[in-house]
Amino acid sequence: xxxxxxxxxxxxxxxxxxxxxxxxxxxxxxxxxxxxxxxxxxxxxxxxxxxxxxxxxxxxxxxxxxxxxxxxxxxxxxxxxxxxxxxxxxxxxxxxxxxxxxxxxxxxxxxxxxxxxxxxxxxxxxxxxxxxxxxxxxxxxxxxxxxxxxxxxxxxxxxxxxxxxxxxxxxxxxxxxxxxxxxxxxxxxxxxxxxxxxxxxxxxxxxxxxxxxxxxxxxxxxxxxxxxxxxxxxxxxxxxxxxxxx
Length: 246
Hints:
Layout: E1 2-7, E2 27-28, E3 31-32, H1 33-44, E4 49-53, H2 57-64, E5 67-68, E6 71-77, H3 84-95, E7 100-104, E8 107-109, H4 114-122, E9 128-133, E10 145-149, E11 155-160, E12 170-177, E13 190-191, E14 196-197, H5 199-208, E15 213-217, E16 222-224, H6 228-232, H7 236-240
Parallel strand pairs: 1-4, 1-7, 4-6, 9-15
Antiparallel strand pairs: 2-3, 5-6, 7-12, 8-16, 9-12, 10-11, 13-14
């Protein structure tokens, strides 16, 4: 099992905050955004960490170097910022034949259940396991993706940035993926509004092909940092009282 952290985007919606600084190096909760994902990696102890970098890549590379808490880091350079699916495609040579846990470097998750999530995935039979949370406001679901599943927890449909919340579950970028997901990149349709391939659509291709994809309650408070207001509201107090798995 490897860990894949996507940190290649420009972060244009962050406005002046990300002009001269990589979005994922902005401080949040007392540390760079990307470090929250690295801390999660430290708990699950993957074989190695692959980080996809692009815009101002040297800021991440120079800061973290080739290891974090004893875990090897390798960097995949995304020369063009063409979305998350393209970033995963960029990382494919570094992933080899390994399954991997995906993290988005602009996400913050408190009290994660990653170890339990990995345990369920390791039991076999699941192609992908999507980490979901229950936000305080249902409107938060519109910022990421929604899921529709059957009574057994098998996901039938993923909906990128739904116009209306379909239910109380909000999908996150904390996802465990079989290596076979890489085979679906070429078949993933291009989103007409964003003109790039979307992560939910990649996973939907596997679902439509009959693979088992399920959801997993990945943790407590979740923040997807996309706008200046997200970075300006810090969570130091939340971290001081949060339980994080050891």
